[in-house]
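Forgive a beginner's question, but might I ask you for the amino acids of a protein and the C-alpha cells describing how it folds?
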Amino acid sequence: MTSKSPQHLNELVGRVVHWIENPEIEFQVKAETLMINPSNDHFGDNVNMYGGSGNVGVAQS
C-alpha cells in the first residue's frame, strides 16, 4: 500500500495493529484507488532458493 502522506500510512498501520490485537472489533477501510501491477502479483507460495541444482519444487522422501 502506498500513499502520498506518510502520516496517513502510519495511522492505518496503527489501526491494523489495533484490529489484529482485538479481533472482536469490526472494522472497515475504504481504498479510493486500486492499482495492480501483474508483475508483482504472486499466486500461491513464493519461495527463494539459494544453491543446489535441479530444484523443481517436489519433495522427495
